[in-house]
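Q: Predict the bound structure with zinc ion.
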Amino acid sequence: MPKITDKKVIDHTRSVCPECLKQYDAEIISEHNQAFMVRTCTTHGVKKHLVSKNADDYEYFRECYLMLKKDINMSPSKQKAYNIHVTDKCNLKCPICYSRGQSRQKDITIKDLEEHFQGVTNSRLCLFGGEPTMHEHVEEIIQWIKKNNNIAVLYTNGLKLDDSEFVKKIKNAGIDEVHIQFDGFSENAYETFRGNKNLLHIKQTAIEECARQNLTIVLEVTVNTNNISEINSIFNFALEKPNIKGVVFRTLCLVDLTSKYEQKITTDDIIHTLSRNKKHPVSEEEINLFQKLLYKYCFYFKVPLFGCVLNRYYLLYKDGNTTLNIGDMLNLKKINSYFSDFHQNSQKRSNKWIAAFKTIFHFLNKRNIKVALLILRNFLTEKFNGRHKHIKPVRSFFFLEISGPMDQYNYDQKIIELCPSGVYLEEKLHRSLGLAYYDRRMNIDKLLLSQEYRQKD
Ligand code: SF4
Ligand SMILES: [Zn+2]
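A: Predicted complex:
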């Protein structure tokens, strides 16, 4: 790809002024290979904010993403993930919390679920809050989700999971994944994000308790300047624990926060830091190649795209005490070259079976055949929603996700309209978490939003 050094417009979208939240047309431009969101507020003047430190990749992935979403039916019926805001209650008072001020007056009930999630199956239903474990009937909610053939995912600060009886209860209710908020190993990280510097021990106990019950754990790490130096230790820690199946590094979202937390890092910083991990580096190139392959796979085989363009995904494989990057096992560059770029021309599916056939040869060694079978087994498990009696999910894979949520600085309406998650919020089911959330927070003009989603909301 040619290196972009001059100023150029990458795309047009709508954004907001970060000071007054009024909407404006915006341009995404590249300058010296950095990408910026630029808009002009009639009151506050030109607002220009960094969205990526690598404009080449940003532009490439943006084009692919927009094309894929257009190409592969993005109808709301394809929505396969929902966040459910089950309660406002919380046992922490984090200074960075963006759940505060939610308008839920009462906790969600099974009746609400029956009413709004009727017919939703084979989907990820993620319990959010507040703190979902504060809901008096969280077990029943999990049971209801499982009874309806969905995947039950708990997003928790982990405070209640230091109680083995409680963990046993949610395990028996059928929880599939527990995502535990984990900010690092220093008191500083917890003090800044959670307003309580003594949380590490309780988080570690929560992880041990979940592991004891053989639950699948994912660490959810908020990252800003105060803890970016810790992300490699967190990553190594996660790789060493057999029950931790993934880690999500998410840049701090500044919605509702004052400039005191002004964002200074991007997902590129996180990726760059991970590439310098002494114990287990994952290079920037590998992450990008894997992401490209993921997009190509979705395009060529018409698979609905998982996730958002604001995120990067990478796969690792745990084999006993060793962990291998997917890039150590497969020649990602070569496999990428079998499938030509599609974002300029969408009529390219014809040679996909030849490319797939060539790819198969990369699996033809002892280790990779084992991995291919595991991929197939996991695929089937997903297909049967983990409920097929002969197929059990395997935990050998480890997912790395690097995510850069939107806030008033990088708000991008074109992307948010394609948000791959729905949300149950304010007593109704919205087909787009992004739209529902930002409608409320930023008073976005509803008329400008996508009709398709609007009708369904
Ligand atoms: S744990 Fe979550 S919901 Fe509770 S205060 Fe912190 S960020 Fe907000
Ligand atoms: Zn303004």
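A: Confidence is low (pLDDT under 50) at residues 383-392, 444-457.
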